[in-house]
Write the C-alpha cells for this entry.
Amino acid sequence: MLKLLRIIVVVLCCILICLLGTIYSLIRFRNPSNVGDVARWFGRLYPLFGLQVEHRFPANAENIGPCIYIGNHQNNYDMVTISYMVMPRTVSVGKKSLIWIPFFGILYWASGNIFLDRDNRSKAHSTMTQLAERINRDKLSIWMFPEGTRSRGRGLLPFKTGAFHAAIAAGVPIVPVVCSTTQNKIDLNRWDNGKVICEMLPPVDTSAYTKDNVRELASYCHSLMQQRINELDAEIAASQAQQDATK
C-alpha cells in the first residue's frame, strides 16, 4: 500500500514539475541556468522515497567556472539524488529519443539541454566539437554521465571518452560528482530507506592531456570516482552500524 501511494504521489509531483518547468523554461527560453533550477526541483523529492540525502559541495563550487561535470549513473533514483548537484549555467547532453518521453521530453528541450545522436558516430564526434565551442562561447558547463547508461548494480561501468575529448578541446577541467550506492537499497514499502551522500570532488586539470592520451584521463577520473564511492558507502555503513548498536 505504501509503495502504491508513493508511486502515485511521485508521478503527480513529476508531472507537475515538468509542466511548471516547461513554462518556466519557455519564459527563459533555453537559458543555461534552467537545467540546474529544474534539476533541484526534482532533487527535493527525496523524502517521498524515505531517503535522507546529504549534498556536499566544495567551498569554491560557485567559482569553478566553465567545466565538464561527470557523474555516476545508477538508476532512476538519480532523479532525486545526484540531480540536485547540477550547478547554475550547466546543461546536460542526452540521447535524441528523450524528446519523446511524455511531459519530460519537451522540458528537456525547452530548458536548453543538448541532444546527441548516439547511433551516428560521426555526428556524435561532431557534437563533442560543438560542445567545446559552446563551452567557450557561452561560458557554460556541461553535465555528462560518461558510463553512457545506468549501471543498475553493476558498479561503476567503464567510461566512454566523449566528455574527456570535449574537456580537452575546450581547455576546461573535469569535475567528478559521485553518489553513494542506491541500487537494491531502496524499498518503496519501507518508511526509512537510509542515507545517501552526493559529493562534488575537486576539479581535475586537463591541460596535460591531449586526444592521444584521453583514455588515461578517463581512467584516472574513473579511479577517483570509484574510490570515493567506496569511501562514501563505507561511511554510510559505519554510521548505520553505530545507529543499530545504540538501539
User: Anything to note?
Assistant: Helices lie at 2-27, 34-43, 104-110, 121-138, 162-170, 214-246.
